[in-house]
Amino acid sequence: MKPISDHLQENLSILFVGYNPSLRSGETGHHYASPSNRFYRILFQTGLTPRLYKPQEDGDLLQLGYGFTNIVSRPTLTAAEISPDEYREGSVILRDKIQTYHPKVVCFVGKGVYEQYSDKRGMPWGVQPQPVVTGVIEYVCPSSSGLVRMKLEELVAIYSGLLAYSQAERST
């Protein structure tokens, strides 16, 4: 499997953080590459991207101010295969990345990702009131995986809250 490179640079508008790469992403080397994953459709339907991007174009989203990383780098079939030790180690590494690159918003693509990172439970969708890294907006969205049974319209409605941060960044 190909390694999944982070797409990071300083001062991103939004850094998207997933659980870990899917097996398909591990095979292709691109984020959210599983055919059942709705990530790129969600971004397009919210207006975060001007067109529907393909997983092979994940690096191009840096030009829009969007970056990618995962809390765990090892590809698996499901997030259930990730060990507690991997989450603990990944949380420390992720916090360092956020402090180093200081994105405006960190969007956790899955409530469980944020729970593992923050060690908090029972949070709502959207902006979290007490960020782990001061000065960064932490925003929780549902996973875009096809295993998540939410309707696309529901996902788009939650992700749409990110649009204000994206537009604000472009107009400054």
TrEMBL record:
Keywords: DNA damage, DNA repair, Hydrolase. InterPro entries: MUG/TDG (IPR015637), Uracil-DNA_glycosylase-like (IPR005122), Uracil-DNA_glycosylase-like_sf (IPR036895). Residues 7-151 form the Uracil-DNA glycosylase-like domain. The keyword Ribonucleoprotein does not apply. Coiled coil: none annotated. GO terms for biological process: base-excision repair, AP site formation. The keyword Phosphoprotein does not apply. Pfam families: UDG. CDD domains: UDG-F2_TDG_MUG. It comes from the Bacteria. One of its GO terms (molecular function) is uracil DNA N-glycosylase activity. PANTHER family: G/T AND G/U MISMATCH-SPECIFIC DNA GLYCOSYLASE, G_T MISMATCH-SPECIFIC THYMINE DNA GLYCOSYLASE. This is Mismatch-specific DNA-glycosylase. It comes from Paenibacillus sp. SYP-B3998. The lineage of its organism: Bacteria, Bacillati, Bacillota, Bacilli, Bacillales.
